[in-house]
Design goal:
By secondary structure, this protein is mainly α. It contains 4 helices and no strands.
Length: about 130
């Protein structure tokens, strides 16, 4: 039975690595969506202003509408907030991983901390509030 704590800690480390992969993936996705919507908004609004000044009114109106849609999508889906949230969660997981090595956390302590981080993830994920 002396090997049981090591096996449990190895299982915790595996779960931790899987969670880190998950957080990295979602952080990258939310960052990509945020940057794409922001750059798209800037390009559309700039082009709309220039084209309107050149009397290409219809194209300018379409670009202005596209910019409005991009802003609405970014604000309603909270890409920036989700990016920051996944970065924060990933950092917490990486700190836990470091503490396993530096402080020699056992399986029980690691499991408790991992549970706190995952509970925080589930309860604090940014979602737009809906009016009733």
């Amino acid at each position: 039975m002396t090997g049981t704590p090591d096996i449990a800690l190895d299982d915790m480390k595996k779960v931790l690595r899987e969670q880190l992969r998950f957080q990295r993936r979602w952080q990258l996705l939310s960052m990509t969506f945020y940057v794409t919507s922001t750059v798209g908004t800037l390009l559309c609004t700039s082009a709309a202003g220039v084209l309107a000044a050149m009397h290409y009114d219809r194209i300018a109106a379409v670009l202005a509408a596209a910019a409005t849609v991009l802003v609405g999508v970014e604000k309603s889906l909270l890409f920036r907030e989700k990016w920051k949230f996944h970065l924060t969660t990933r950092t917490s997981l990486e700190l836990l991983q470091t503490e396993i090595v530096t402080k020699g956390l056992d399986a029980a302590s690691t499991g408790a901390r991992l549970g706190e981080i995952l509970e925080s993830y589930a309860s604090n994920l940014p979602v737009e509030a809906r009016g009733t």
